[in-house]
Amino acid sequence: MIHNLMAQISAIPMTQDPGVSPNSDGLPGLPALRHLVGALQTFSLVVCVAIFVVGVIAWAGGSINSNATYSGKGKWGCLISAVAAALVISAPSIIRFFSGIPIG
User: Fold this and answer.
1) For the whole model, what pTM was predicted?
2) Range of the domain at 84
3) What is the pLDDT of residue 3?
4) Residues above pLDDT 70, as percent of the chain
5) Largest CA distance in the chain
């Protein structure tokens, strides 16, 4: 019984091609959308730098005043903003890697 069921399952094709593929001329305004996303990426990097600076100030102020809470929060702010900036910069490469679609 189980052998027969396994034979039936293995006979089912696992991949079916729907015949749809990404294209760059399917929608009007796609270049404008790409331009907008690039601007958002730049804005995100500027915000990451601002958060990093605030984190450094909190870290230094907490260290000078022996306030472990501010110092620790400043360290976390620096770390999180640096990781966020790395992800923002590498987002096109991450998407290209996982989708197999050439971008740009």
Assistant:
1) 0.70
2) 47-104
3) 62
4) 78
5) 74
Is residue 38 within 8 Å of residue 20, measured between CB atoms? no
Both structure tokens of 81: 């903003």
Task: Look up tokens 């015949």; give the residue.
Answer: 19
- The reply to whether 34 falls in a domain is no
Q: Is residue 21 part of a domain?
A: no
Q: How many domains does the chain have?
A: 1
Tokens 């996303």 locate to: 37
Q: Is residue 97 part of a domain?
A: yes
Q: What is the pLDDT of residues 43-79, one digit of tens each?
A: 999 999 999 999 999 999 999 999 999 999 999 999 9
Query: Beta strands of 11-68 (E only): which ranges?
Result: none
Please say whether the beta carbons of 12 and 42 come within 8 A.
no
